[in-house]
Every structure is written in structure tokens, then in C-alpha cells.
From TrEMBL:
GO terms for cellular component: cell-cell junction; plasma membrane. Residues 22-89, 98-174 form the Ig-like domain. The lineage of its organism: Eukaryota, Metazoa, Chordata, Craniata, Vertebrata. Keywords: Disulfide bond, Glycoprotein, Immunoglobulin domain, Membrane, Transmembrane, Transmembrane helix. The chain crosses the membrane at residues 198-216. It comes from the Eukaryota. Gene3D superfamilies: Immunoglobulins. This is TMIG1 protein. It is found in: Membrane. GO terms for molecular function: cell adhesion molecule binding. InterPro entries: Cell_adhesion_signaling (IPR051275), Ig-like_dom (IPR007110), Ig-like_dom_sf (IPR036179), Ig-like_fold (IPR013783), Ig_I-set (IPR013098), Ig_sub (IPR003599), Ig_sub2 (IPR003598), Immunoglobulin_dom (IPR013151). One of its GO terms (biological process) is cell-cell adhesion. It is a single-pass type I membrane protein.
Amino acid sequence: SVGLELSVNNHAADFTLSTELGPPISLSCLVHNSSQAEELLWYRGDGQVRLKEGNKVNISNICISPVNESDNGVTFTCRLARDKSVQVSVILDVQFPPQLSGEETLRVEVEKDVSLTCNSKSNPQAQSTWLKDNQSLTLQQSHHEVYQTSEIFRLSIKKVQKSDNGTYTCVVESPLGRGTRHFYLIVEDKKPVFPTEAVIAAAVVVSLTILFGIVARKDKIFKVW
């Protein structure tokens, strides 16, 4: 394999290919400086791609269709079968806007904690903000907590109060678009706690009283029967 080279889409070295969702893309691998038939292999990440006969020798083509979010960041590699060190890789950079929508109603009692979670992916990474009743939410250090990763944007509210009632909107924006999700937070009064232990204790006392009363009057009861 000395002197043999590969190229993918006319690139003789590893490269990044930017694309968008939907339209298919083709990758063409070609052997250079070969004096005989050379078999080619394709890999998606660590997994080998199955190729049809007639699409393996000296030139090989694969098609990704349709392109979706799961293809973002994936490496496709063309290798020489008899010397896998001869290879060229291409990393897919799939760009797509935030895909975020819908609404949710949450009911929570006063003094309880609640979390509002937006699941959103985008490329390039988007900027995220929270609104309350269509106004920018002012975060209070001991009351609000925001957690964010490339796919999750979460607002936690500790010990909610009646003043926390309202519509919260998760806004995710990137150069390619914008997505929103609405949360209708309803803060309810505390529900009265049923005194289960007290009722059980009372029932035990009543039962024992009745039992002791029966024992104390057993002679009269038997006489009546």
C-alpha cells in the first residue's frame, strides 16, 4: 500500500462537512496511485457500513438520507481494506434550529418546590432565557435556580408562593431560528393534612375501652343471654 492514497469528496485529509436537515448527502471515496484493484471499507463511527457488490473496488459511494439530528458530529471513515491505516474521515456538522414547542400545566401547593424543564437541541448552540407573563424573569438567588446543558434548560422554583402564579415561557434562540414552550404554573393552597395517626390512636383507645367494658360486665352479659 506504499504510495496509495484515498480521497473523500476530493479531500485527501480529514475534514468537516457542514450540511442541514433533510436533503441527502453523498460521500465518494477514491483510491489514488493504485496498480491493482483495491477494496474499500466504510465506517460510521465504529460500525462498518454494508456495501453492495460493485461499490467496493477503487471507488465507493455512500449516501446519508435523510440527514437528521442524530447524524450531527458523526464521523464517516473510508479505509483501504488491506491496510486500514490508509484512511480519510469526514465529520458531519448538521445545523438545525431549536426544536421546541408545546405547553404544560403544573399545579403545586404553596411552600412546595417545582421544576420547569425544556428539552431542546440545536446546532449551533442556542441562547436560552425565561419569561414570566411575557416579561423577562428576574431571578432571585434563594428562590430560583437555573440549570442548563446543550440539551436541557431547567428552571427550579423553591418553596413556591402565590406570587409565583403565572405563565412561564422557555425561549430558545439560535441564528437559525427560535423555539418556545409555555408552562402554566398554578399555585394552590395547602391541603389540610388528615390526622391519620390521631385517628388510629383514638380508634385503639375506643376499642380497648369497649373490650375492657365487656370484660368488666361479662357476668351480667352471660346472665342476660
